[in-house]
Amino acid sequence: MIRWRLQPGPTVATVDPPANGPIVLVLPAHDEAPRIAAVVERLPSVVCGRRTRCLVVDDGSTDETAAVARAAGASVVVHPENLGLGAAVRTGLRAAVGLGAAVVAFCDADGEYDPSELERLVTPILAGDAGYVVGSRFAGSIERMRPHRRLGNVALTALTRWLTRLPVTDGQSGYRALSHAAAADAELVHDYNYAQVLTLDLVAKGHGYVEVPITYRFRRSGRSFVRLGPYLRRVLPAIWRQLNAPEATSVETVAGAAPPNPIAVLRRQFTAGARSPGSTSLADARSVDDVVEAVAS
Fold first, then answer.
1. Which is the most buried residue in 168, 212, 240, 258, by most CB within 10 A?
2. What pLDDT, on the 0 to 100 scale, is given for residue 284?
3. CA-angle at 179, arms to 251 and 249, nearest 5°
4. CATH number at 23-284
5. What are phi and psi of 234, to 5 degrees?
6. Can you give the C-alpha Rg of the chain in angstroms?
7. Are the beta carbons of 124 and 10 closer than 8 angstroms?
8. Regarding predicted confidence, which is higher, 219 or 190?
């Protein structure tokens, strides 16, 4: 049967995060050498009483993004070639879960979002009020956004709101946070982008959705990969595939069950990603154990 709208899954049981798990901020990056150090350096060392770690996924940059990020204090995983934002997020999820992160957050590496606001996204998760938190630019403040970008955001957000049956105000935000369990459960069906399909995936699996207001300013330099025509041609079919994908088996821990082994989850997702048609993963370059070792060192 063809699905036109999402049927959200039953809310999953809240699972306590790993006792000593860090807050891991993942920065997917491609050719962001002039901007990435300032983003890394704005990450507080402690958020909600937990230490933070910054993980940069360098998606095949041709500049010094990886070296600059390391010098600024981030751990770095490098894709040997440009695979796409969705692929970089997938790599970041696996690595952060392997590190035992209590919360996994994502933020653009171009300076449009403020890592010092990370506590806003983390608090609902650690309080047990949500498994998936999105920072909403439209519920917060926008310093500058080009008119065609605003129009596209409004239109795609309206679509996401209709599909999910949730009061979504910012369907394309580049600032998000996931609980450890949601991060282990997340599946991305394409490599180009992740925003809408990640929301559909996690809402269908019952991870509680919450938005918090954030501040946003348009990038001061460089160029975004997003172009409206190519974006729609790739994202809309991916949304359709996500809506009509076979029911996935959640690895969410239920009440009374032992929490998932993060390394086992990492290996399972890594293997599944390598088998997915049309999906390129870090398996092309190194083993999953190498990924965990790279970011844990």
1. 168
2. 37
3. 15
4. 3.90.550.10
5. -95, -40
6. 17
7. no
8. 190
What percentage of the chain exceeds 70 in pLDDT?
Answer: 68
Domains of the chain, residue spans: 23-284
Strands 132-142 and 176-179: antiparallel
> If we measure between CA atoms, which residue out of 77, 22, 75, 11 comes closest to residue 45?
22
Residues in the chain, how many? 297
SS (H, E, C) the chain: CCCCCCCCCCCCCCCCCCCCCCEEEEEEECCCHHHHHHHHHCCCCEECCEEEEEEEEEECCCCCHHHHHHHCCCEEEEECCCCCHHHHHHHHHHHHHHCCCCEEEECCCCCCCCHHHHHHHHHHHHCCCCCEEEEEEEEEEECCCCHHHHHHHHHHHHHHHHHHCCCCCCCCCCCEEEEHHHHHHCCCCCCCCCHHHHHHHHHHCCCCEEEEEEEECCCCCCCCCCCHHHHHHHHHHHHHHHHCCCCCCCCCCCCCCCCCCHHHHHHHHHHHHHHCCCCCCHHHCCCHHHHHHHHHC
Exposed e or buried b for every residue in 63-88, given b needs 16+ CB within 10 A?
Answer: ebbbebbbebebbbbbbeebbbbbbb
pLDDT in tens, 123-180: 999 999 999 999 999 999 888 887 877 888 888 899 889 888 899 999 999 999 999 9
As a whole number, mean pLDDT of residues 271-293 equals: 40
Beta partners for 210? Answer: 133
